[in-house]
Amino acid sequence: MNLMFSKAWLFKLLINIWPPLFFYRIKLKKISADFREASVEMKLSAWNRNGVGTIFGGSLFAMTDPFYMMMLMARLRDEYIIWDKCADIDFIKPGKGKVTAEFIITDQLLNDIEENTASGEKFLPQVTTYIKDESGDVVAAVNRTLYIRRKKKYR
User: Where are the bilayer-spanning segments (predicted)?
Assistant: First the structure.
């Protein structure tokens, strides 16, 4: 197992200094010890501001990019291949100030993964993340399709 996924505090430390997130000012604020819940925030800054003074859309998209995949990798360990397959974003209103995104891995998702990959089939679950502003209003909705398959030696 990858050392990064052995402890939530280590994951948080490493993800917060990872250049693709660090330079956009994306910060993992909390992650549960069991990797089932995470909260990410980004504050408007010179590094993520667009031409009209709001958060650049690519930065909003980036703040959701690795989390479901990495959280599932930590939960499911080395038995599975897990990738982001595709994603789309619906921009609902401009991001100003601080925005947050919550990621939750439910029992239902874990059960669905187990059921749908038991014989080696690929499973393509869809998860939605809502990016919210400080008032709790949705700024963007990101729909992500994951690719999950049990590795051959665990089928």
Answer: 46-68
